[in-house]
Amino acid sequence: MNIRSAASSGRDESRPSRQINIVLRNHDTPAVSGTSAISESSAPKNSAQIGLFQEIGSELDALVGLDNIKELVFEIYALLQVAQMRSEAGLVSGGQAYHMVFKGNPGTGKTTVARIVAKLFQRMGVLTKGHLIEVERADLVGEYIGHTAQKTRDLVKKALGGILFIDEAYSLARGGDKDFGKEAIDTLVKAMEDHRSQFVLILAGYSSEIDYFLMSNPGLPSRFPIQVEFPDYSIDQLVQIAELMAKERDYILMPQAILKLKQHVMLEKDESPHAFSNARYVRNAIEKAIRSQAVRLLNQYEHNSPGKQELMTLRTEDFKL
């Protein structure tokens, strides 16, 4: 997220949150013309925290799209910084609840963002460990009465000091009142009260089904003050993600291979919009192409080794889509 584009988005630049965001995100840049300057005493003094900001910022900026998610993470960062400033000034800086709901289709970056949030909370002192425990229904629900509550309590215990991330959380409510999933929900609600501020619970899943899930227990909606949508990636963003994934593995895509992948992803997304797995689908396509390239090179170079450039290149014929 570019701070210059954020500052020129047409929003009210005099808002304190926006001023803080400008100072925190680019403290070496002069204040944008027309805004009230923030005094140097308001800027973060701790170099470790500035380093954390730069680290978290670089991780977020490396993600394709997700502008609303990036904005949310920096809002939380700014809130935690200002809470420290208020505490130093002798003002009340009471803690907030940070339990979250991540809504969106598969492969839209929910788990990746959860890991970044966990790191932020640990480094800012909200969580003591900052680890991420990722679970699903099978990890929480037992086989008999009482078993589910014990399994759920055990997982909450493991998550203390970090984040408990429940993927496809809505599956806990699918069986109705007699299903053991309800027992898991009730246990989680109690744990959020018993271990307040000791862990963060993030529920993730499809938007409509998560909304239904939150209605399954009257105490759930108010316990998740942060609810955010993870939008599907556009075709161009998916192609960009594919190129980044290839680059991370020291591969490059030929222009015709990119075109072939783009056309295929466009068709696949149009034919199955609800089942399309976004970046996960693209990752699988890249990994399959890498396997195909390996077979092609072995067949093509039976008696010698291909050059470095050839070892790096994914061609059109490698994408057997």
UniProtKB/TrEMBL annotation:
- One short Pfam name that applies is AAA
Q: Which InterPro entries match?
A: AAA+_ATPase, AAA_lid_6, ATPase_AAA_core, CbxX/CfxQ, CbxX/CfxQ_RuBisCO_ESX, P-loop_NTPase
List GO molecular-function terms, semicolon-separated: ATP binding; ATP hydrolysis activity
Q: Which residues form the AAA+ ATPase domain?
A: 96-234
Q: Which UniProt keywords apply?
A: ATP-binding, Nucleotide-binding
Q: Which PANTHER family did the record assign?
A: AAA-TYPE ATPASE FAMILY PROTEIN / ANKYRIN REPEAT FAMILY PROTEIN, AAA-TYPE ATPASE FAMILY PROTEIN _ ANKYRIN REPEAT FAMILY PROTEIN
So what family is this one in? Belongs to the CbxX/CfxQ family.
**What is the designated name of this protein?**
AAA family ATPase
